[in-house]
Amino acid sequence: MEKARVTPVNEERFFEPHELFFSLTDPKGVIRYGNDVFTRIAAYDEAELIGAPHNIIRHPDMPRAAFKLLWDYLQSDRTIAAYVKNMAKDGRYYWVVATAMPCKGGYLSVRLKPSSPLFEVVQKMYHRTLQVEKQCEEETGNRKLAIERGVKHLLAEVKAAGFDSYESFMSEMLAAELSSRAELLRASGYTAKRSIDSSGRRGIRQLESTCRLIGTMIGKLFKSVDDFRRLEKQLAAKYDDIQKLGMTLHLLSINASIAASRLGSQGAVLGAVADALSDMSKQMEVSINHRASRLGPLQEACGKLVFGIAVAMFEAEVACDFAIELQTSTDTCHNATVLESLDAMVDEFENRCRDVIVGMRASGEEISRTRREVRELVNRFIEMKAIQINGKAEAANSGANSEFSVIFDEVAKLVDKGRDDSDQLLTVLIACTDRVREFDKLSLSFEFELDALQKSLAMVNEDRLQLAAV
């Protein structure tokens, strides 16, 4: 289908925060299904959308780099979340937070209304990226090169905003958007849609009930997201600080040894203190470097876990809305289309939830190991504090020069800073451990309900066949 020529109008198409979009495409991005919210806000008839490329709603204000990223993720079998400005058939615009992922037979996307502070930041990023693309294309006449420069610029913007990677950004963004949306819905007194009494559709009612129950469990899990986000952020920062601190302590111990050697036999005790400090700082460096080499995987696991939980929470609500849409629809053909999409949605939702279970357990094991190692660091700082105090006292008793006093005062500051950093990290690790333990209590029920999803879906198909036969 040829894309309709639409002139942009600088006017927004309004939709409510509780409304969620859903669409399903084939591997080439051709629309196979769009839910009622999608068709209404896009202002196209369903017949106009089905069979059309998804870029039928592309807004010219969107940098092509954003779509290049999207397709790169999807074609490498990864889920992506991004802000997208769309254009309706009447030329008006509407912004969404889009989460797109591979599914059976193509790709599916679920979308919500953006409301977090990050939204404004990203709009400015997109504007600057679009200017980079336009300038490059004007200068070179090469659109492909312009898009490549746009991607490079956009990722640089993401880093400049304080994110290590696009993965880190979208994990933070989606969690922030879902939290912001939940707060808006609470403030407005919104009540989620519920099923109706639809005779002959027991499968749909069962499916909705199961999805809602799983959604409640994921909602409890989502409350732990802030702890995992804090851990992801603090891991690298705190370990980097402690690593630098360990190196400085080692240098100070060398300075103390040199100063003690100048005193000859009178500096023997201070030399022993300096040696003890040196040994301890070396051990600490080895321990910190060993742990630092494994920080990347733990940070990545925390980021993926936060993102997975957020997407699963999002999908649970969409699946419930789907079930209700099926209950209120009387068109058998339309039901068949929705059922195909529902099957793809439920399959993705189940896989996502099972990935969350695996991720929680794997993260829990790694968090426990890290927690033990940080406790060991705390103990080493306590030992170093004792060495520092002894050194300070010996320097005073022996009448040694002020050089020792300065060295041991500096050691005290560094040890106190290291202990404080370790305690802060330990606090976050303990909180995450508690969240994992809370999840463990839910996990059996969680897996039981996930097993029930496919059974409910089978019942939905049985009901459809029975209704069609009537």
Automatic annotation (TrEMBL):
One Pfam family, short name: PAS_3
Record's protein name: Aerotaxis receptor
UniProt cross-references to InterPro entries, sorted A to Z: PAS, PAS-like_dom_sf, PAS_fold_3
SUPFAM superfamilies: Methyl-accepting chemotaxis protein (MCP) signaling domain, PYP-like sensor domain (PAS domain)
Record's keyword annotation contains Acyltransferase: no
Lineage: superkingdom: Bacteria
Lineage of the organism: Bacteria, Pseudomonadati, Planctomycetota, Planctomycetia, Pirellulales
Ranges annotated as spanning the membrane: none
NCBIfam families attached to this UniProt entry: sensory_box
Chain ranges of the PAS fold-3 domain: 33-102
Keywords on record: Receptor
